[in-house]
Input
Amino acid sequence: MKSLDKKFKILASAEQVVSEKGLSDTTISEISKAAGVADSIIYQHFKGKEDVVFSIPAERETEFFSLLAEHLEGIRDPESRLSKIIWCYLRYCDTHPGYAKILYFDCLSSMDFYHSRGYEPIRKYARILSDCLKQGIAEGQFRSDADIHLVRDILLGLIGCEMLSFIGAREIDSVAPDLDNIMYLIHNMLKLRRENEETKADRILKAAERIFAEKGYYKARLAEIAKLAGVAEGTVYEYFGNKETLLLSIPDRHFHLYLDELPEVFEIRNPIRKLRRFIKYYFSLFSKERDFLRTFLIQIQLSRRFYGTAQFNGFVAFFRIIEQIIEEGKSLGCFRPEVNPRVFRNMFIGTFNNLTLRWFILQSDRQIDKMQKIDEVADLLTSAVTVDDEN
Output
């Protein structure tokens, strides 16, 4: 048997054995027996059991990306491409459930995997998503004010949670049928915002806040504010008359907002505000409990055994709250009736998982303003479910 053939046989056998038993309960001897080789042959190609398993995604890379390229051929529309990129991944995992189990329960649950060659296909898939989002913005199909990397992380997080619903919680028998529900949320999150008088004035005020804060009143120029707001300089004069009026209008905007929200400070009744509050509350909880976050996110949530425990029922009960908020908003006409609460729940949990993994565990994006990003997350997720006249 040639060296490459032996390596392929070892990986195929490892995938079969580990998908059934899990990495921790599998031995090198079991893999070598299934592959029909001696233990020593495995060590000629791999450093150990973990290295074998971490090499499986890299081995799958060529096949998956060839299929993806084939399915994308001839599709030019950004939203159609995005849908196909997501569908292809979901379909691949549906048809290779053993591989999906290994990827999520045995690879992504180990910190060492994120520094291995096996993680590169995930980076490559993320780049493909990002390129599609950039294309949509450049062609004027997706909203330009959304952070591409943040949206990409929301998509990856949603896909990941959908997989856990499939291979872990077993809420669904396959993931590809959820594509329409997934794309419905994504479409509403990315669609262009309607231009109206209120949003234009609001953009001018936000831009003015930033310029005044950075340069002070005397050095700030209306031309700079107009450019940052994306309007003509004459539009600023049309709305506010002069620089002083613009400056004095800033607190008025904030305090009107505070007064509107004041009745619900202690008892929130509006489902939209409930949803925003829940999103920010959950992020704040875990940002304070870093040890629990590290333990839960990697070692517990990506454990096969977690999904068969009583503790998992508590996890489900907690997140039923967000499904109830969605149902309440639908009944009151605040949220779109087509929204699938379970899929939206996965979008939220997946977004949180992906962002906090990078922020607090992998410790990338150290320089970003996390509070600002959490606000952007709340805005994006809320826009995915809110009816147009509530945005």
Remarks:
- Residues 265-390 form a domain with the Tetracycline Repressor; domain 2 fold (CATH 1.10.357.10).
- The chain is about 70% helix and 0% strand.
- The two ends are 63 Å apart (CA to CA).
- The mean pLDDT is 88.
